Amino acid sequence: MSGLPPCPACGSTYTYEDRDQFVCPECAHEWPQVAAAEENDARVIKDANGNPLTDGDTVAVIKDLKVKGSSSVVKVGTKVKNIRLVDGDHDIDCKIDGIGAMKLKSQFVKKA
């Protein structure tokens, strides 16, 4: 795998670099490399205190959270290890001991 992004126009994986642009040989679409780098850096997820989060971080819950569809509650101070950041409203995907797989909002956690 070359590590180059697929073509945004046709989805082809046969892109190549030409100076400061990427080029798709199948549809002849050209786009700047800078835009691809900014697209990856644009998504910065922050905790309740404003600290940036990354995949694999350990966080602590800052508020009692009811588990939807269950009578259990995630208590304040519960530490969650090895988080994974995802797109969407609930931007943290994790496993919590005693509860299982969950999605959390970053505004209800702080970096531990």
From TrEMBL:
Domain Protein YjdM C-terminal: from-to ranges: 45-112
Domain Protein YjdM N-terminal: 4-32
Pfam family name, one: YjdM
InterPro entries for the chain: YjdM, YjdM_C, YjdM_N
Family: Belongs to the YjdM family.
Protein's UniProt name: Alkylphosphonate utilization protein
Species of provenance: Halioglobus japonicus
